[in-house]
Amino acid sequence: MCGIFGIISSSAFPKTDLLALATFAQQRGRDSSGLMIFQNGSYHIRRADYPIVKLLPEAKIDSPSLVIGHSRLITNGLNDNQPVLREGICVLHNGIIVNHGEIWDKIGKTPTLQIDTEVIPAIAAATLESGGSVMDIPARVLELCRGVVACAMVIPHLGKLILFSNNGSLYVASKNGATYFSSESYPLQMIDAGEIRQIKDDIVVLDVAVSDAEIAVADKVERRIDLIPAFTHSAAEESMLVYPKHDLRRCTKCILPETMPFIAFDEDGVCNYCKNYKSRNKAKPREEIFALVEPFRRKSGNDCIVPFSGGRDSCYGLHLIVKELGMSPVTYTYDWGMVTDLGRRNISRMSAELGVENIIVAADITKKRDNIKKNLKAWLKSPHLGMISILTAGDKHFFRYVETIKKQTGISLNLWGINPLEVTHFKAGFLGVPPDFAEERVYQSGAMKQIRYQTLRLGAMLQSPGYFNSSLWDTLSGEYYRSFSKKSDYFHVFDYWTWEEHTVDECLKQYDWELAPDTNTTWRIGDGTAAFYNYIYYTVAGFTEHDTFRSNQIREGQLTREEAILLVEDENRPRYTNIRWYLDAVGLDFSETIRVVNDIPRLH
């Protein structure tokens, strides 16, 4: 996934426009970058594993008639970069093709790169070889490819540039006789381009310089750290992950154990969490949400923003918003370095199948992961269950960028697909915060709650001074945007559609939604952090967030207690693959880390 952009002109254009487009594209990812340029009578390609704003001045662009480029978020394809050049065809691609491995035999060609994008120029070449025309290429690409395809393709020997997209993540505009394009409309507006239109299920074909000459390619590699570490299975490491059967007293109604913070049982063995529970999963009349969104509907274009993680519930929520509510959303994804490729592939699947534009805001992945590493090292020196949440604090800027996307798109309505049963009182409970049984939302705001929480957290941090590191401001500012910033035109679809697991899972099957190879659950499988922190909770306290989720389902009448116990027995098993990915991503040794976790005194 990346931001792509370009300017095609027969005369000089402002270099400030090019810099503006490139800088904005970097918002979508800065892990690598690339350019294709035509100037002085020839095409050439420059690629680098560093940000586009650094590559751009190095390219020495002077009076070109074509400049196209990208700024990339590393996803599929570890060692390869865009633009991808194959058989004389150059491609920039925003998206992920989830079935690229199946396509090669269909077109009678063999891949030479790891990157999924390579299949696009291969399809184009096969189409031309079989007698097809330039105009036939987009339809053939979109016929074969599953997942988001927002593409700029240059065919120098034919003198053509093609722009096409299956989800609308591509816009074209004009300025002073030049053609501009970008992954989003906002940067085109900022440079005062005119006639901006979205490319979706149609194509734009432009004449560019004809050339049969070999295209010169220059690659620069500086990265010292692999952002997608190669997975190597180790039986010795996997055997370190323990999964003891805990003999804990559990509530006789739900399955919460005696190690749950602030739990108390009555004479019948029923816990206070059950006795104070108020149903969170009763749908309001659906007519209410139709009335709420009616003023926001537009005759054309996008009319709402949907925060979109690629997880089970945000995907189902997007389905409801498009298919049931009849809205035209633009989805927004915040990648903070812990979104796995599985999660990104599901984002690509859903966006393509529903024809929905996806806007990505990518953090500085290296910096975010370094923050996690610093805090995890501090945690390992003084393990405290109440401090585990600091490992996921970096994702709270999700809430900040919703407001940014609202301003950039001019859309105020945002619709969320947050599961109402995902309430995990215990995470703050282990820090000393008693449960607020009156909570109506998964994420709660409030100054007094935050002051109490941060005071308790400070006390725990003092036990391990390593917490006072350069990540502190990122952590605190993210929690400010989650808990204090004002939110408007903000509604939850599961207030109006009852959340039922079987219905959700059956719905997602129609989109060929991908499951994880190391667990049977469909919850949090695209989250790189969940397997690790749940391993800690189970090892030390004897339960995980799965126990609290299943307990809420029992209270809602969706599961029997016996069914829930069988489910968590399976779901709480250690996920070696995911845990290994997490520790490799943040740069900590698996064996050393798991040894510390296994040695933490048990609460039972």
Provide key terms for this protein.
604 residues, alpha+beta, Glutamine Phosphoribosylpyrophosphate, subunit 1, domain 1, Rossmann fold, 2 domains, eight-stranded mixed sheet, five-stranded antiparallel sheet, 18 strands, 36% helix, 16% strand, globular, aminotransferase
Written description of the protein model:
This protein folds into two domains: 2-220, Glutamine Phosphoribosylpyrophosphate, subunit 1, domain 1, CATH 3.60.20; 282-498, Rossmann fold, CATH 3.40.50. It is an alpha+beta fold and 604 residues long. α10 links the parallel β14 and β15. It is built from 22 helices and 18 strands. The mean pLDDT is 92. The protein has helices at 15-25, 52-58, 100-107, 119-129, 137-144, 186-190, 235-240, 272-275, 286-293, 312-324, 341-354, 365-381, 398-409, 425-429, 447-461, 472-483, 501-509, 530-541, 545-555, 561-571, 576-586, 590-598; strands at 2-8, 32-39, 42-48, 66-72, 84-86, 89-94, 150-155, 160-165, 171-175, 178-182, 194-198, 203-207, 216-220, 304-307, 329-335, 357-362, 414-416, 490-492.
